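Researcher: Following up on the earlier apo prediction. This time include the ligand. It's NAP, with the SMILES given after the sequence.
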Amino acid sequence: MPKSRVLLQVDTDPHPSVFDSVVALDAGVDHLLRHGGVDPEGVRSLVHGCIFTRGPDELKNTAIFIGGSDVARGEELLRQIQAAFFGPLRVSVLLDSNGANTTAAAAVLAASKHLELAGGDALVLGGTGPVGQRIARLLAGAGANVRVGSRQPERAQSVVDELLARHPSGNLSAVATGNRQDLADALSGVQVVFAAGAAGVTLLPSDIRKGAGGALHVAIDLNAVPPLGIEGIDVMDRGAEREGAKCYGAIGVGGAKMKIHKAAIRRLFEAHDLVLDAEEIYKLATSSGA
Ligand SMILES: NC(=O)c1ccc[n+]([C@@H]2O[C@H](COP(=O)([O-])OP(=O)(O)OC[C@H]3O[C@@H](n4cnc5c(N)ncnc54)[C@H](OP(=O)(O)O)[C@@H]3O)[C@@H](O)[C@H]2O)c1
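Model: Understood. Below is the ligand-bound prediction.
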């Protein structure tokens, strides 16, 4: 008899995300084991429950999803989960704390539909947050020239340093975006801008965006809470043409994000040894028709 698909949902927040649970069930998971307040020290025994209960040839029917608002803590959970595996006793793991990986994959995928990322110039506003960092990481991996924006250039520089450790030949730079002049300078000459700032904060006013002129081909905003991150873009935009640029709002990107999230959950059950982080999820996104 075929084994049922069991997903262990480990969440660093006190209550495991209901959003992530619903998506998992919609993606075809049979049984969801939900744990909140999971810390890296305590995850080992949960992992043992996954790897010691089914034979090695059946382990692809068990998988782990890591969620929660704290991405750094989610990354530490992933390290500890991997450290608890040994030999063939391992199950596939998906990291999507704060929705950062699936959201970043959807945003970069949207941009890639309109321009060649390799060699292109990109600006990531709010590039120090979990979503912005993942966008910058995917862009660097795709060969784009990436400007990481922040109100505090030293914060952007530390993100750039981390990304360069991962992509030593990457063309990454930190840019200040804390005032109008800095913002206009940061935007100058870029073909694509991503706004990944905090919810309810406008990062790019309309006049500065229009002042960028013809170079800007794509503008993508991930903030769904008014006021939006890029002024003049509609939250529902999905490739809408505005002042010569293809524009995406947060809900416009959200449809692809949901498809990617479900595709990643389904992918977990195709093998017992997958680790789906930003790059793997983006690769899946490019082949999933999202
Ligand atoms: N559609 C989806 O499924 C989905 C999923 C996840 C997230 N999101 C959205 O994606 C966006 C990014 O998420 P996140 O969690 O990475 O964001 P975040 O951590 O809350 O903020 C990102 C960056 O925004 C900047 N920022 C914060 N407050 C600001 C302010 N008052 N004025 C100007 N800049 C400010 C900060 O950068 P500096 O301090 O370095 O300037 C911060 O690092 C959010 O709008 C979120 O709602 C969407």
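Model: The chain has a mean pLDDT of 97.
Researcher: Noted. I'll compare it with the apo version next.
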